[in-house]
Amino acid sequence: MDVDSFMETGLLSSDEESSRPRKKVVKKKQQSPKASLKASPKVTASSKVTASPKVTASPKATASPKQKKKEGCQPQQQGKKPAVKIAQFEDSSDDEEFAQALAMYKDGEDVDSEDDGDVDMEDEDEDGEGLDLEDDSGDEDDDGDGEEGMDDGADDDDDEGEEDMEDGGAKPQGRVVSQGMVKGWVALLQKHSLRGLRQVADALGAAIHRTAEVKSAEKYHYFVESPQVFNALVRCCLRHVHLVVQHHIPLPEDDVAGGAERKSSKKKSSPTSHANWPKLRKVVKSYISTLLLMLQHLHQPTLTCAVLRQVQHLLVYISCFPRLLRLMTKRLTILWSGGDEYVRVLAFLSLRRLLMANNNVTYRENCFKQMYLSFARNSAFTSISSLPGIQFMENSLAEIYAIDLPLTYQHGFVYIRQLAVQLRKAMTEKTKANIQTVYNWQFVHSVCLWCRVLGDCFTSTLEPLVFPLVQVVLGTIQLLPTARYFPLRFHCIRALIRMSAKTDVYVPVSSHLLEVLDSSSVRSRTKGSLAKSPNFAIILKVSKSVLQTRAFQDGVIDNVFDLLLDHLSSYSHHIAFPELVLPVLLKVKQFCKKTKVPKFQQQIQQLVTKVEETSTAIIAARSMVSFSPKDAEEVAKWMSQRRQESSALQKFYKSWKEVKSRQA
């Protein structure tokens, strides 16, 4: 689903009470005490945006029974909390870019979205009219340019807008917005009226500032008092404002289509160079500031998604205001690093487009730094619930770093060196505090991140960072090579295997896996225990009481078996595969003879069989070539042909992964 169709299908559902006809109240000409109303629609984290109108009366006058009866006929009753009802966020496979980003959230796993509360606009409006943003009880005189409907609909509210209204002792400035005025603004915006754009932006700014309880130096001319009007005003802005702005200041074709990449050319179109920019600069800046305020203070996920969709339409215009660009980037980074999964995906897409649209080195450097530090802060604790979010940040940050490889090299050099300094201090002074600076989730996730970045973005620019990173990872494994830290060892080895497979740089990780098989915790007899196998994906070490249990041994052997298969299958096409696997075969055969656990013997025997079968095939194919090992080009061509053919080891590893995924 593209960005435009999401809004066209009706993101915001109309309030139930707005569809009911309002009862007309006949006001008697009598001197009654003026009541001051205070409406503060506060948005909470729940699914409602509430406004609590408080009524204060003069202490000298009391309301007559007739007046009380008339007040009971009012459509907005005292003490009722209005709500802005928003349809649930809806994912669609049509939005290719969003689907790819969402797939990174759980590292390839499907994300099931709840459809409760979704509004199917096609079923409701089959005549093509879409969502009715106007109140059914409003004036039906919408002919002309929409100005009469706006003025006529506001006649009933003028008397109320002229009354004294208290807000902490101060009178709220401006005219009370009514449903009729919103209808008029919709008509004006549909005709791309600049006057309507200024008025609706002013009204939304006033409403959001009162909702968020934030003081503003800007003077607003409108005052939103009714929650139904607040609901209609937000829907009006999110559906029409960006279309008016794009009509007067057209965007490049790639930006209108929602493309993330802007074609590099000497002359890049900018809104500031357009003839209409001086007319729209002030109102666009005010509207973007209002959207930023909404992202900062409104924490309902569906409403945040709606605002982020609107922000994506205006990213090119946001880049024209350096201060707003800096604040928006900071807020998007916060949303990207925590919260609802759909909010995080939309925030990531917005950040990526901002980075693609801005070639400023200083801005990109600050954005890279903010995102990396936010990733490090939010990866300090890992659990079943937080692991998908951490994996999403890791995948998306690797994609962000691919935008500017020279700048990525500078960041990688600084942060990999920082990891190396921490490791060297821990190795020279093995105190508990120094070791804890290395053996923690922040350090491990940072190492895994840079392994992924170098693997996904491997070029000659980043190649010098591979060797120091490998040394840091291997040094981390050797810092405390005890059985309690086998989970940490497996995390590091898995990151190295992933990077090695994508960069074609051989990393000797098999020796560190074979060391596990020689551990006394794996060879010794186990104690009877009903405990389940520890989840190695969310732990770095195990307690001493777990070391001698069968569950721990099963988990260790499964991880060694998995990592050896992954490592050897990635080199099953290599011309030197028989020599590469020779020490591995000797070691695992020795372990298979000594162990007395039938399950372990069966797993190791399967590994030995498939490795020997692949090795025999390589030797047979190698004996038929006419070139020598010194002919590098011919060797590379031969290995490229072998890579296209799936070896016996690769087929076995693929089937084994499928079985493991079904069991999980």
Task: Describe it.
- Strands 1-4 form a two-stranded antiparallel sheet. A two-stranded antiparallel sheet has the order 2-3. A two-stranded parallel ribbon has the order 5-6.
- Strand 2 and strand 3 form a beta hairpin.
- It has 29 helices and 6 strands.
- Helix 7 crosses helix 8, helix 14 runs antiparallel to helix 15 and helix 21 packs antiparallel against helix 22.
- The longest helix is centred in the C-terminal third of the chain and has 25 residues.
- It has 664 residues and is an all-alpha fold.
- The chain has a domain of 240 residues.
- The protein is elongated and about 90 Å long.
What tags apply to this protein structure?
6 strands; single chain; disordered N terminus; 664 residues; 2% strand; mainly alpha; 29 helices
How large is the radius of gyration? 32 Å
Number of helices: 29
- Percentage of residues in strands: under 5%
Question: Which stretches are poorly predicted, pLDDT < 50 over at least 5 residues?
Answer: 1-94, 108-171, 256-267
Shape: elongated
The proportion of residues forming helix, as a percent range, comes to: 55-70%
| Physical arrangement of strands within the biggest beta sheet | 1-4
Judged by helices, strands and strand pairing, the structural class is: mainly alpha
